[in-house]
Records
---
Amino acid sequence: KFDRQILNKLSPRALRNLPPEILEDLDIPVIESLDIHTIQLLKPSVIEQLSPHIIALLDKATIQQLSSEVISQLDTNMIQSLDSKLINELDNSVLNNLEPDILSKLPIHRIACLQIETFQKLPPAIISQLPAPLYE
């Protein structure tokens, strides 16, 4: 077993070649100093502890493995580039900030849960599919 204190003092370059299981035990600031490709090898539960600006640099495949709570904290543009299945799992408070063209891809039952101001921005073709009491 490696000594965590010693590992935490190594340079990001020296750490880069260590296996992910060892890197995952390092202090968060040390993990954040690693290069993005190395960070992407770590398990989602470790990545989720990193700051949102680091997470935003990761590739889409890595981000899509993270919890919806973590994804919700990302930049709106980043969220909008994700898979619509994933967007569908996000909290309404996050969905209310997304662009109408992204929201249009969500299932009708999810759109129906959004704030009236949000779904009023959607194309009429989508609004007409909503349950009547919502838009009258």
---
Amino acid sequence: INTVLFLPLTNAFVAILYYNSAFPFNSGFECFKGIHLMHFGFAIIASVFLLAFTIVFNFLYIDNNPISEAAFASPLNKLSLLKLGIKVFFIVYVFVDLQNPLGKQFSTVMAVVYLAMLYYRFQNCPCYNPSVRYVVYF
């Protein structure tokens, strides 16, 4: 869920939640009537479950035992939640900004955010095992 399924499922749910008649897949639907209302309700429920399960799996995926035998055991950090938030923001931005007048500014802001995440990653201990920590840095 965290790697492959999150982006297409979120994209599908946002496409249903953000109704715009300019989208080609909204051509046969009336807003909040009939089948669109059913899809809208399903999209809300499914997106809440998807986000909840993704956050839970995100925290359960990390082995945070300091004396673990696993090579990449690491402490919990908020970086994975930040990356999840960026994914959701990017999908919502693509649907809201159809004409893309702020494409260069958005790309610049995203580059700065990813550089800040990279700096944070190098400043904090990514792994408990010192030999793995040395390999990750270099």
